[in-house]
Amino acid sequence: MRSAQSTAGGASAELAAQAWALLLDQSDTIADSITLALFERDAHLYERMGPELRVDVRESTRVHIRRGLEVLSGQRTSGNPTAIDVWRETGRRRARQGVPLELVLNAYMHGARVLWEALIARSATAPDGLVDDRVLLAAGGTVWSNLDVQNAVLIEAYRREAARLQRHDLQRQQSVLDGLLEGRGADPDFADEARTVLDVGPDDAVACVVALYDDPPDSLGPAEDRLDRLGVVARWHVRSGVYFGLLAGPLPDEPGIAELFAPYSAGRMGVAASPDGIAGFATAFQLATRAAETLPRAGCGVVPVTERLPEVLLAGSPQVAPLLLARTLGPILALPEGQSRMLLDTLAALLRHGGSPTHAAEELYCHRNTVIYRLKQIEQLTGRTLTDPRDKLLLELALIACGSA
């Protein structure tokens, strides 16, 4: 019984192959009808990608149909690439051309359907008994099972090539970002490369976002979605352990950028605009990094550099801070911790309220006379007075330097 079924199945497969062979002399005509249908259905894609893709698709479809019919009819021509080689190469080429994978698979599905319809039409003129319903059924099973193999080969080749291209593009992006940090943005030739690789022009508004994380994230997810909706280009990289991004396009101001990232901050982040575009990106990176470094090491948040200028100035001159503290708050810092903390808090409150003991007392929940007494202690210990603008500035900077502001 099994032998009879196997023989019958083999006969059906042989007859199906003979049926498919009837279409070999029509392969180019069938391929051209498929191509025209694809051009009409996806006209926007082919118009956008230019005439070169049209030429390639027409020739590729002819090769596919010829090789496909050779496989289906069992009449492969020696010396020609196999159908699998053709499918694999097409997958790689479409990935390089930027054709969406979904459109490629839809084209293959359409081609299989047209082939099937062409066989049905041809069966009407075939010799009697050569293509009956049983043979058509077997031929249909062959073409659709072939499509499954075809799609699997193409998808793997397409994805491998797309991944390779993505790695290459990412490497180029990172190389250009490294060049910008090295100050090459003012070089016209390098600026042209940045336009090509990063999609950022020399006249575009540019800002830098720096994030100081122990473990840099893969992305800033929701924040990047918001940037996309604003039409802002974002390119990210890690250099010397610092995670940073170049933002370009219709940017908000620095506080606006900081506000955009604030809900998603998991570490210390700084923002700095580059008034000179990509030519000044290296400076923006340095300023954004220093702004982030002014935040408490164990904390998180996002700060624009324009709101942390005193802190950035002190951080940029590490030799100045110890000298400043020694010449201003040194005697207070030498007191026992409790007394020192009380005087520093009082000084900070007085500075926040323009030197007013009344308002400072309200903030500190103590009597006005207590604040006046502490102010006299501060002035005696430091040799500075809040009525002198220069002394006031030095005391403010000293509080920032010791983290008490």
Automatic annotation (TrEMBL):
Positions of the RsbT co-antagonist protein RsbRD N-terminal domain: 28-172
PucR C-terminal helix-turn-helix domain sequence ranges: 343-401
UniProt xrefs under Pfam families: HTH_30, RsbRD_N
Gene3D superfamilies noted in UniProt: PucR C-terminal helix-turn-helix domain
Domain of life according to the entry: Bacteria
PANTHER family in alphabetical order: CARBOHYDRATE DIACID REGULATOR, DNA-BINDING TRANSCRIPTIONAL ACTIVATOR ADER
Protein name, as recorded: Helix-turn-helix domain-containing protein
Organism expressing this protein natively: Nocardioides oceani
